[in-house]
Amino acid sequence: MIAALLLLALADPPATIDGLPIGGLPRQVLPPKGCAAYLFTIGQTRTLAVMAGADALRIALDGKPLDIARATATGPVAHGLSRDTEYRGTDVTARLTMTIEDRADLAQGAAVPDALLMLERPGKDAVAIPLAGLVGCAA
User: To the nearest 10°, the Cα dihedral for 87, 88, 93, 95?
Assistant: First the structure.
């Protein structure tokens, strides 16, 4: 599974994913410090869709890359990332819930076997996007 997810990260990202307002992200780098979650869609189209760090969430919305600042974080913390995090931008709110599991076969990171991104844009749309992926940490 991990190898398949890494290969997906190398492909050109789609502008939209399964008719949703969110698109794929190009290859992302590890943060200079700390950790980030790299989350892939698990529907019909499998692609890197979310990069979540301790301070911001990166997505491609309506074909444009967008970093949304973290507003709140609750629940257990693993690798500097909370289980439940809300991010707020000018005209979008994103809520990310994820399960982070440490595994012996992953160095400097962890698995994210399931995650859910809720995107809300007042007057436009609200969508729930199931995800899965990995947490990567700077050395």
Answer: 10
Distance CA(14)–CA(12), nearest Å, equals 7
Helix (H, G, I), strand (E, B) or coil at 8: helix
Question: What pLDDT score was predicted for residue 49?
Answer: 95
The conformational region for residue 34 under phi > 0 = left, psi -120 to 50 = alpha, else beta, is left
pLDDT tens profile 46-99 = 899 999 998 999 999 988 899 999 999 999 999 999 999 999 999 999 999 999
Token pair belonging to 5: 């997810």
Following CA atoms 31, 35, 37, 38 in sequence, which dihedral angle do they give, to the nearest 10 degrees? 40
Cβ proximity of 49 and 39 under 8 Å: yes
Model confidence at 4: pLDDT above 70 = no
**Nearest of 11, 1, 94 to residue 47 by alpha carbon:** 11
Answer whether residue 6 shows pLDDT above 80: no
Letter for the amino acid at 50? V
Whole-angstrom CA distances from 39 to 11, 59, 89, 123 are: 15, 10, 20, 27
